[in-house]
Amino acid sequence: MKKVAKRTGKRTGTSRPKQAKRAPRASKSGRKSTSAPAPSRPPRAIVGVVAPSSPAPLVELEIGASRLAAEGFEVFFHPQVKQVDAFFAGTDSERALALLDYAFDPDLTVIWAARGGYGAVRLLPILDEILAKVGTPERKTLVGFSDATVLLEYVRTRWGWRAIHGPMPATVHIERVRGKEWRAFTELLAGETDGFAFRTRPIHRPEGFTRVQGEVVGGNLAMIHSVLGTPYAFDLKGKILFLEEIGEAPYRMDRMMQQLHLAGALDGVKAIVLGTFTDCRDSSPQVYAAAPKGRGKPKMKPLRRTLSEREVLATVFGEMGAALGIPVYAGLPVGHGEGPGALELGVVAELEADGSFGTRR
């Protein structure tokens, strides 16, 4: 199995980033060899891992990256992935410069976010400031999801990069991607395929709806909401909006959707396609079943019936679809769920009344 190597080299200041130097390939024993044999065939892609958000757990990072290396990819870690500063993987400047270091490296074809968490949004103004002086890096592919949602949209729209909403190495999600989903992810990463085909189910289907075509954009709902009213807000007009989420109560998701709607951010959206909504369960507060008597523990009951996941999606997103007059479909196996699939953003796809969602061949 091909081992994961490390790629070293940092830069300071705002001059054009220098190419990082290739470090010796690691042997199976963990020792570094200075004369590792050349691979029998060219790598499917050369991948550089950076950590633009929260600290990366290093054991999980090695496991995840090694899975990709075993598939014929050459994978490098930036030294920054080991950094920890408060609840970030290094300072804002360290994380931004690591991303730019790899963005300007001519050998790398793919940049892979180590994990999500929080912190990517803090890099955007730093990237703006530096790139105003040094120019835009050549086209590559950025892969990630969750907190990386804002980075995916940033590099896609401002740098012209390819953006893949997909598994990250320093998370347990990548270990759950198996079979055809894993094969599809590696083929997408290597640029061996550029299409997708999924089956979804209707949450809200307007009368007379047959099909809609549009550019697919989106990602994590909270991250899209977080940049509303900023220079980094998503342009959703004329788009098919993909959404996924984790750990948000239904009422908080509804609040975010309502704010996007009231701010006009959803005007012109052609359709909404929902991915996984992990741990976004409804809950009901406990209230008195009867007036308390004496000092005994009062009898409690739920205030109302809790909603199923389907009912939550219908209330939060289906009703929004009805208000906007657009179709809303669910069941896309992309997000924080078990064995998450990959979705290329920025490509034109079709959503049909029967739930077929994919790119045209």
Description:
It contains nine helices and 20 strands. It has 361 residues and is of the alpha/beta class. The chain has helices at residues 58-69, 92-103, 124-134, 149-158, 173-176, 179-189, 221-226, 250-262, 309-324; strands at 5-8, 21-22, 25-26, 32-33, 46-50, 74-77, 110-113, 141-144, 162-165, 197-199, 201-204, 211-220, 239-246, 271-278, 286-288, 300-302, 328-330, 343-345, 348-352, 356-359. 43% of the residues are buried. Strands 2-1-6-5-7-8-9-18 form an eight-stranded mixed beta sheet, with helices on both faces. An eight-stranded mixed beta sheet has the order 10-20-19-12-13-14-17-11. The protein folds into two domains: 5-189, 3-Layer(aba) Sandwich (Rossmann fold); 197-359, Glucose Oxidase, domain 1 (3-Layer(bba) Sandwich), CATH 3.50.30.60. Helix 8 runs parallel beside helix 9. Strand 3 (25-26) and strand 4 (32-33) form a beta hairpin. The longest helix is centred in the last third of the chain and has 16 residues, at 309-324. The protein starts with a strand and ends with a strand.
Structural class designation: alpha/beta
Average pLDDT rating: 89
**Structural domain count:** 2
Examine the secondary-structure arrangement and name the CATH architecture of the largest domain. Answer: 3-Layer(aba) Sandwich
Spatial order of the strands forming the largest sheet: 2-1-6-5-7-8-9-18
Q: Please name the CATH topology of the largest domain.
A: Rossmann fold
Counted beta strands: 20
Helix and strand run: EEEEEHEHEHEHEHHEEEHEHEEEHEEEE
The N- to C-terminal Cα distance equals: 34 Å
What's the shape?
A: globular
